[in-house]
Design goal:
Layout: H1 4-9, E1 15-17, H2 26-34, E2 39-42, H3 48-61, E3 66-71, H4 77-86, E4 91-95, H5 99-108, E5 112-117, H6 120-128, E6 133-137, E7 143-144, H7 152-162, E8 167-170, H8 176-184, E9 189-192, H9 194-197, H10 206-214, E10 220-223, E11 230-233, H11 236-246, H12 251-258, H13 262-268, H14 292-311
Parallel strand pairs: 1-9, 2-3, 3-4, 4-5, 5-6, 6-8, 8-9
Antiparallel strand pairs: 7-11, 10-11
Helix pairs in contact: 2-3, 3-4, 8-14
The structure holds flavin mononucleotide.
Flavin mononucleotide (FMN) binds at residues 18-21, 23, 42, 44, 69, 71, 95, 116, 137, 140-143, 170-173, 191-194, 197, 267, 278-280, 282.
């Protein structure tokens, strides 16, 4: 398959494994890159020294292109960016911040920059900031999201109409048929998160992977909009948040309820009650934990089958 995204990154299939805190280290990223997609190391949960080790291990594990996702809301951003440049990483996906801040520095150092957005407004700002491509992430997606609740089906055509640079669709994509659907709407590639959480190579806790596989329709919700909106699985922590809202919680109350390291506690340490369990709506369609390469190859087979089906209509 060849298009603007495969050419931009030098990959075989326009499938990007999303950068995900506590989930996407070098093992997952290199497995996806070796299988022909683009693997991303999620730097959001890594101290600078940890990121350094993951990049070096990824470089040893694959000779294919891979990238690093950097959410721009954590401390040590300068150090993370320095390490990325020093170690010769060629692709960076930034999220949760202003794309103007780091894009010129990264591009001056020969790095392809992609920024993640959840609205047309920020897609236009990213294009203005000079990024090489954008990820347009719909309301279904796992993890942090926008406040406007724009679904992938609505966001992609809206962005496509106004944006000239390549568009990568995200949110609710776990199959080749969903991939084809977003490409029909104008996406040049897809970023897949939740599906890769339930992979052998993901560093997420086995109990969390199992929880994802067991999740049903309606088991996730986008909440904590006053802080940073996040889609998570309904568990005890989620119920405590709902109770806090019912009691008229202020922003400060929510910050104190969230506390520190909630996502680590759930996703990485496996506390299914008190942890923040970030996952997308599409979890309800995920039925098994598989090797990352199988997930990718299944998606390509489904994509080809879906294309044939459409041609037969
Ligand atoms: C467990 C988890 C952690 C995530 N962490 C990040 C992150 O660190 N940075 C980021 O830009 N997006 C993060 N996301 C969002 C993903 O990058 C991706 O855009 C999203 O999962 C796509 O939607 P899907 O889950 O429906 O596939 C996370 C998502 C999940 C499920």
């Amino acid at each position: 398959m060849q298009n603007r995204i495969t050419e931009l990154f030098g990959i075989k299939y326009p499938i990007i494994q999303a950068g995900m805190i506590w989930t996407s280290g070098w093992r997952l990223a290199s497995a996806v890159s070796n299988a022909g997609g683009l693997g991303l190391i999620g730097a959001g949960s890594m101290y600078p020294q940890v990121l350094r080790e993951h990049i070096q291990k990824c470089q040893q594990a694959t000779d294919k292109p891979f990238g690093v996702n950097v959410p721009m809301l954590y401390p040590d951003l300068d150090k993370l960016m320095e390490i990325i440049v020093e170690l010769g990483v060629k692709i960076v996906f930034t999220s949760a911040g202003n794309p103007k801040t780091w894009t010129p520095y990264l591009q001056e150092n020969g790095i392809t920059v992609v920024h993640v957005v959840s609205s047309l407004k920020f897609a236009l700002k990213s294009q203005e900031a000079g990024v090489d491509a954008i990820v347009a992430e719909g309301f279904e997606a796992g993890g942090h999201n926008g406040r406007d609740e724009t679904t992938t089906l609505t966001l992609i055509p809206a962005v496509k109409e106004k944006i000239d640079i390549p568009v990568i669709a995200a949110g609710g994509i776990a199959t080749g048929a969903a991939m084809l659907a977003t490409m029909v709407l104008g996406a040049d590639g897809v970023q897949v998160g939740s599906r890769f959480v339930a992979s052998d190579e993901a560093s997420s806790h086995p109990l969390f992977k199992q929880k994802v596989v067991e999740a049903g329709e309606g088991d996730t919700h986008l909440t904590l909009k006053e802080l940073a909106p996040v889609r998570l699985i309904k568990n005890k922590f989620y119920n405590d948040v709902q109770q806090a809202y019912a009691n008229g919680a202020t922003k400060e109350d929510l910050i104190s309820l969230l506390g520190r390291a909630r996502a680590k506690r759930g996703i990485f340490e496996g506390d299914m009650e008190e942890g923040e369990l970030e996952i997308g709506q599409v979890a309800s369609l995920i039925k098994s934990i598989k090797p990352a390469a199988t997930i990718l190859n299944d998606m390509i087979t489904e994509f080809e089958e879906a294309k044939k089906f459409i041609a037969s209509l």
